[in-house]
Amino acid sequence: MRTVPSKVLASFARSLSFLPSLVVVSLLIGCGGGGGVDSASLLGGGLSTGEVRPLEFGSDNTASMNFSDLSGSEEFTVLFFNASVDEGNFEVELQSLSGPAPSKLLRQAPDPEFETAGEDGDITGAAHVWLREMEAGLADQEGLAPGKNLEQIQQTVSCANGSGIQIKVLNSLSTTQAYTTTCGIQVRSTANAVYYVDQQVIGDISRSVLDKIIDDFEQKIPLERSILGSESDIDGDGLFTVYFTPEVNRLGNSGGGFVTGFFFGIDTVPTGAEPASNEREILYICVPGDFGTVLSEDFWASNIAPTVLPHEFQHMISFNHHVVTRKGNAEIASFNEGLSHFLEDLSNGSQLDRVSVENPSRVSKFLSSTDSAPFTSGISIAQRGGAYLFFRYLYEQAQLGRYPGASDGNDLLRNLLQTDLTGVPNVEAATGLEFKDLLLDFYAALQLSNTGLTGDPRYNFRGIDLHASQEDNRGTVLDGVHTEVVSGAGKGLVSSPGGLFFSLTGNDIIGSGQGINLVAAQGMIPGGAVIRLR
Questions:
Q1: How many Å apart are CA 401 and CA 491, to the nearest integer?
Q2: Using an 8 Å Cβ cutoff, are 484 and 502 in contact?
Q3: Is the Cα dihedral 349, 353, 354, 356 positive or negative?
Q4: Which terminus of the chain faces fewer neighbouring Cβ atoms within 10 Å, N or C?
C-alpha cells in the first residue's frame, strides 16, 4: 500500500513560504509603499498581470488583503475554494475594510440540495452510482478465482437454434435480483474480446457501422491496458465480452432517459451468490433505435458507442485492481467516472491530447457551477465534468514532471488504479502533493487557461481550450469559468470541494478602504488566491 505523503512534499510545486501561525494575513498588492514590512517580505511586492498569489487563512478561517498604489483600472479575481471532502455547503464572504469588523464565525449553512445524478436527465449517472454502491461489498464475497476455477463456471446456454448464447441483463436499478435473459448473437471474435448483438436488433444495426466501432475500440484496448493494466479474467479464456443490447437503453426508461452502457462487477462472482451474474467480464452497451428514448444510428456511431466502450473498459480494469486483486473497495463513483471520461479522450495513437466528443458539454456545465458541483461527492453531468477536467489537469501536469509521486501522466494513471486506496487519499498518494495544493492550481487554471494572460504551464490546459467552440456535434462553446461580479464585498456558498470566483476592480478596492477581509465558515478548510487579470 502506498502511503499519503507528508506535508513537506507540498513544497515541491510551490516555493512560496507561508506563515501559518498568523490568524489574519495581510496581503500587500502594489508597487510601492504601504503595508508592513512583514507583508512585503512575505509576498514580494505587487502582482503582475496573470500572476496568482495564494492566500493563507488563519485558524479562525479569516484572511485580509491590503492593496496600495492602485490606479483603479485594475481587474482582479479573488478565488475562494473549499479543500474539505466532507459533504456540505459553507458560507464565505468578502467584506470591505471600511465596513463593519469581519465576522469571526459563520455557521455552516444547511446541507445543499445538490443536483444528483438523474435529476439533470443523466440516467446513466444514476445507474453508475447504484452500480458502484452494489459493488461495494463484492470484495467480501467468495468470488471466482480468476482463471483458476473453470469447474465452477456455469455452462453456457445456447439460443437461436445454437447460433447465440443466453446473457442476463439487469432490468432494475433497485435490486440485483431483477434481470432479463436475452439471446446474444456473436458478430466478431478477436484476440481481446467476443462481441455479441442482441437477437432483438441483430438486423437493425448497420454492419459496416458496427464494424467501424469495433475496429476503433480494438485499437484502443491494448493502449488502455498498457496505461492502466489488465482487466480480470474470471473464466480463464483470455477474453472479455462486449454486448450490444436494447436492454441497456430500457434500463433508464423509468427515469425518462436511457443508459448508454455499464460494467458491473457482479459478473465476477458465482451465480450461487448473485443469480444475475454471467460469470464473465462483460461491457453492456446501448444500441440505436427507439426503446423509450429515440437514439439515431448516426449519433450513436459518432458520439455514444465510440466513447462508452473505452469509458466502461476503464471501470472493468479499475474493478480488477481495486477489488478482485487487492480485495479493497471500488474507486469512489465520482473519481471512477472522471477517470473513465478522461480515458474517452484516448486516441488510437496512444495520445490523450484530444478531447472526446462527449466531454465538452460536461465541462460546460461544470464551469458554470464550480461552487455548487462538488466533483468528489456526486456524478451529475456537471460533477462528472469537474472530475474529468480535474484528472485531465493532473495528467497534463504529471506529463510536465510536476508531481513527485509520478514520473509522467501514464504513471499517474497507473498509480491511481493499481492500489487499494480510493478517493482523495488515492489522489494525494499518486501525485505526492496535498489535495489543497492541487485544488489551488486547478482552480487558478480554470480562471487563466487559454486567456493569454500567462504562459505559466501550471495555469494552462493543453488538451482542451476553455475559451473556444468545441467539435462535439452539440454546438458547445466554452467561455471560461463563471465569476461573481462584486463591488468590494459579496458572499456566497461553497460546496466541498467547490470553488467560487469573485471579480472586482481597483476602483472597487479603493472604495472599500484599500482592502478586503475574507471570512469562511468554521468547519470549512478554506483556500484562496488573488489573481490579477488586468
A1: 37
A2: yes
A3: positive
A4: N
Is the backbone peptide bond immediately before 497 cis, with ω within 30 degrees of 0?
yes
Dist CA 534 CA 521 (whole Å): 30
Distance linking the first and last C-alpha atoms of the chain: 47
Query: CB–CB of 498/334 below 8 Å?
Result: no
Residue 9 has pLDDT above 50, yes or no: no
pTM of the model: 0.86
| CB 302 within 8 Å of CB 474 | no
Q: Strands 499-505, 75-82: parallel, antiparallel or unpaired by DSSP?
A: antiparallel
Q: Is 411 helix (H, G, I), strand (E, B) or coil?
A: helix
DSSP 115-165: --TTTTS-HHHHHHHHHHHHHTTGGGS--PPTTT-GGGSPPPPEETTTTEE
Q: How many CB atoms lie within 10 A of CB 98?
A: 12
The three-state DSSP-derived secondary structure of 453-520 is CCCCHHHCCCCCCCCCECCCCCCCECCCCCCEECCCCEEEEEECCCEEEEEEEHHHHHCCCCEEEEEE
Distance CA 363, CA 34 (A): 42
Residue range 472-528, pLDDT digits in tens: 999 999 999 999 998 878 889 999 899 999 999 989 888 888 888 899 998 899 999
Dihedral sign of CA atoms 120, 490, 24, 458 in order: positive
